[in-house]
Amino acid sequence: MFIRASVRDEHLAEDVLQEVASVVAAKFDQYNRDLPFEGWAIGISKRVMKQHFRSAKRNGVIFDEEALEALGAAYERREPPRQDRLRALELCLGTLDSQKRALLEMRYQGEVEVQEIATRLGATANAISCALHRIRTDLAACVKRRLAMDKRSGL
After folding, report:
1. Cβ–Cβ contacts within 10 Å for residue 98, how many?
2. Does the keyword Transcription apply (predicted)?
3. CA angle, residues 134, 139, 143, in degrees to nearest 5
4. Given Cys at both, which of 23, 101, 116, 118 links 96, Cβ 3.0 to 4.6 Å?
5. What is the pLDDT of residues 40-75, one digit of tens each?
6. Residue 115: which CATH number?
7. Which structural domain, as residue segments, surrounds residue 31?
8. Same domain (yes/no): 73, 7
9. Does residue 96 sit in the same domain as residue 141?
10. CA angle at residue 85 from 17 to 89, to 5 degrees?
11. 49 in Cβ contact with 2 (< 8 Å)
């Protein structure tokens, strides 16, 4: 997405994406897992794009490196790092009552089909599907609230 937003030419965007993927694969052992992967990959993307734009500049194409930096910074800020979302989800899961948690565990950890859960619990498949939907909706809202609280408090 970042590359396509930065490079208008679809073929050049594909070339840049392939080169970025190659660099990411080659340098993956240098990635610090304590930092967000997205920011690291965007940094590589910016360097690769700068190389392409410098080459294009020699051919008369004008590009503003400051615009690339600003776009990269905007992409890095657009959503919380994955570990923040996972931490918020863990906290939200901890607030569920035992029945809701058991239902989620059966469905997603045990990979039990909805119909089988319904049979085990003496309910209809529709009732189980609705309950799972409500739980997921509540969890999504909880995660969103927690991330907003973390953002306001500067965590």
Report:
1. 7
2. yes
3. 150
4. 101
5. 887 888 888 878 777 765 555 455 566 656 666 666
6. 1.10.10.10
7. 2-77
8. yes
9. yes
10. 140
11. no
